[in-house]
Amino acid sequence: MNRHRVTALLNPPQSPFELACAAEVFGTVRPQLPVHYDFRVCADHPGPLPTTVGYAMLVEDGLDALDEADTVVVPGWQPPGTPAPARVLAALRAAHRRGARVISICTGAFVLAQAGLLDGRAATTHWRRTGQLAAAFPEVKVEADVLYVDHGDVATSAGIGAGIDLCLHLVRSDHGAAYATEVARSMVLPPHREGSQLQYAVGGAPPPTPAKPAPRPACGRPPPPGPPPHRPRPPRAAGSFTPPWAPPAWSCGRTGRSSTSCRRWGPPRPPRTNRWHRSWSGPPPTSTAG
User: Are 75 and 15 in contact (CB under 8 A)?
Assistant: First the structure.
């Protein structure tokens, strides 16, 4: 079976996360799934390539790797809007003319726009850069409120993490929803994310958080002011013993239950977590796994 060849075009300084978005989806071998993609990287100048986090990665292939690619990924471009070398743009155009799918993650859309692959088309990029992209390339219809735009032969994603959304979308288009769902499950991610990137955009100052009311007991009455009233204990039978640490025996004003069962003074509940429902009152089940 011929595998789909995916090649990422890197540029110094390269963002490792944006590259990892494509590498994790297309390049990771998952034992429980058939392998449909081959993943490799290339650069204009092979060799050690600086990254945005201070270390260098070794890139062995040059631009000729794009001649064999079925999908070309531009995983960001730093600084955003920097003119790409003419030979890089020519290689992207040649790959597109040959029938390769060309996609960008985050600010990689600037390179696709420079190559003319987005002329007259909708595209997106990181929400901080949508205005810059629209101003630099007025012939591109910039969509600021989406996670990705896919035209079939050309696709662009919104900022950074939205590159995973785009890559999973392409897997779903290539091999169906079931396969893409299994890939997403292995990444502990939803196979499809709703909404737009603008929900994460920085707006005005957040509204002030309203002050929380003072805590009230579960029985619905405010706690009594001061210590509970002293009530004489009933006489003890001969030979009985009440330990000195026994709690006083007052009762809840609404339920009539003793203080040891009233939630206001009773024993604390176990902490609430996302693992157990708040109404569950027993101990966690003991695992029987070996």
Answer: yes
